[in-house]
Design goal:
By secondary structure, this protein is mainly β. It has one domain. Helix content is about 5%, strand content about 70%. It is built from one helix and 24 strands. The protein has one helix at about 1-15, and strands at about 20-25, 30, 35-40, 45-50, 50-60, 60-65, 70-75, 80, 85-95, 95-100, 105-110, 115, 120-125, 130, 135-145, 145-180, 185-195, 200-205, 210-215, 215-220, 230-235, 240-250, 255-265, 270-275. It is elongated.
Length: about 280
């Protein structure tokens, strides 16, 4: 199983076998590409005029790759700029990572900031900020920070605590806790929303099941730990063109219509209701 996983990682990032050597940059250095090494460690400033390939990349200073980047494992606590495409199996970015082209990866963790043209990953964990000028595709996406996608978000499993913005959305089971803005449609299997602030979908929400509730928070203070069963409703409202689902359970929603087999609603403004048998 470990051999299969290693083969998958190698194939994903395009890392050739037999890389040798360690490159450490503590001052300022400019190199001609392609730059190939087993390890590249940048605590100073590095500029590569071409492609860079490595099994391991660590950037605590600043690195600029003017071509494409292929890396097995990368840790960025400083600044990494890739002007071409990037293929990274495992990325931990607590600093600033920017890929002007497309970024394809396996396991991506962002505690700082990440920018990419198109982002195609297996697992994406965001506690900082991610901005994608194209589309975001992932198997599992979790965000407790900011996620802004100018194109489509396509994720099998998505959970967002915070803010999210996208042109359109599709996927499997989605959970949204906070506020979000979608300029076209949301088409997923199941959608669960807790509203913390106003949210808006210009198009239609289509799913098998849609649940929208006001967000809840525990009361803090001196007696918070003793009376944690008390909750306070927070304000928030979802506005969309329509909702189409088998099961719909919503509150604080304004929409033109709802098509459903089963509908429960509270404090909503609905133009037309179509109940299907």
């Amino acid at each position: 199983m470990a051999d299969k996983f290693e083969a998958y990682e190698k194939a994903l990032s395009g890392i050739p076998s037999g890389l040798e050597g360690v490159i450490k940059v503590s001052g300022s250095s400019s190199m001609l590409g392609p730059l190939k090494a087993k390890e590249i460690d940048v605590s100073g400033s590095l500029s590569v005029s071409g492609d860079a390939i490595a099994e391991n990349l660590e950037v605590s200073g600043s690195a600029k790759i003017k071509g494409n980047l292929r890396v097995g494992n990368a840790e960025v606590s400083g600044s990494l700029l890739v002007e071409g495409d990037a293929y990274i199996s495992v990325l931990e970015s607590s600093g600033s990572t920017s890929v002007k082209g497309n970024l394809k990866g396996g396991d991506i963790e962002v505690n700082g900031s990440l920018f990419a043209g198109n982002l195609d990953v297996d697992v994406l964990d965001i506690s900082g900020s991610v901005r994608v000028s194209g589309n975001l595709t992932g198997r599992i996406v979790e965000s407790s920070g900011s996620c802004i996608v100018n194109g489509l978000i396509d994720a099998e499993r998505l959970k967002v605590f915070g803010s999210m913005r996208a042109r359109s959305c599709k996927g499997g089971i989605w959970e949204l806790y906070g506020s979000f803005r979608v300029y076209e449609n949301i088409e997923v299997d199941e959608l669960y929303v807790e509203l913390y602030g106003d949210s808006e979908v210009d198009g239609v929400i289509k799913a098998k099941k849609v649940v929208v509730k006001l967000g809840k928070r525990r009361i803090g203070g001196l007696f918070g730990s003793f009376f944690s069963f008390f909750i306070e409703r927070r304000k928030g409202r979802l506005r969309c063109k329509g909702i189409e689902a088998d099961e719909v359970d919503i509150e604080n929603v304004d929409c033109e219509y709802v098509k459903a087999k089963k509908l429960d609603y509270k404090d909503c403004s609905i133009g037309r209701i179509h109940l299907e048998g």
